[in-house]
Amino acid sequence: MAHVLDNPIYNALTTGNKHLAVEAGGAFYFKDNVAPFAGMKNNSAADFEALLKNATDDRVFVIFTPEQVNVPDYFKVLRHFKMFQMVYEADSPPTEMESSITSLDDEHVEEMLALTKLTNPGPFLQRTIDFSNYTGVFTDGNLIAMAGHRMQPLPYVEISAVCTHPEHTGKGHAAKLLLEQARRIIAADKIPFLHVLQENTGAIKVYERIGFKTRVPILGYVLSK
């Protein structure tokens, strides 16, 4: 039997994130101002055709798969990338949020968009905050590091948008934010996981140090009509 994390986007869109989902036959995708991710039950020709019917000329879809897929010619592959999928396996993190960490909400969206544009941790759109539980670190009133929840293929919850302003790296902000995200997820009786580009060795070392272990390699495709 396939593991729920072998098809994380589809399982998120049909479980923990279904309130943010748009259904298209055998395919599901997030609302276009939340995230570009799309999930298909079997990555079959019929699933791709269902996704195509809902693809506008300017729409980009991102799919994840544990193995290479044959993308039909009516989709253009804009990018193909390799990741590791990592699951948190350490002891429970601290039970209280550190005082240096702030919960983020709608009033912080413009700062969050600016920081993610600068650091490029992955897609972050106007309503990506609807994934919930974003936290940040401020210095002199400016947001300089952040992280939050993203896909929820229950009982797993993904940590994402982990980023630090280039002028403030090396100070442990990412580790603190990751542990806070893990704390929140575990407190909800769920399991933290994340995805990281295989070439991002610096981030991988941070994740391993605080208790994440690689589960499987996974592939990503960025598609347009």
UniProtKB/TrEMBL annotation:
By its UniProt entry, which PROSITE patterns does this protein fall under? GNAT
* Source domain of life: Bacteria
Pfam families noted in UniProt: FR47
Q: Which residues form a coiled coil?
A: none
Which residue intervals define the domain N-acetyltransferase in the entry? 99-225
Q: Which UniProt keywords apply?
A: Transferase
CDD domains referenced in this protein's UniProt entry, alphabetically: NAT_SF (cd04301)
Q: Which InterPro entries match?
A: Acyl_CoA_acyltransferase, GCN5-like_dom, GNAT_dom
List the Gene Ontology MF annotations in alphabetical order: acyltransferase activity, transferring groups other than amino-acyl groups
The name on file for this protein is GNAT family N-acetyltransferase
Q: Which organism is it from?
A: Mucilaginibacter achroorhodeus
Taxon lineage: Bacteria, Pseudomonadati, Bacteroidota, Sphingobacteriia, Sphingobacteriales
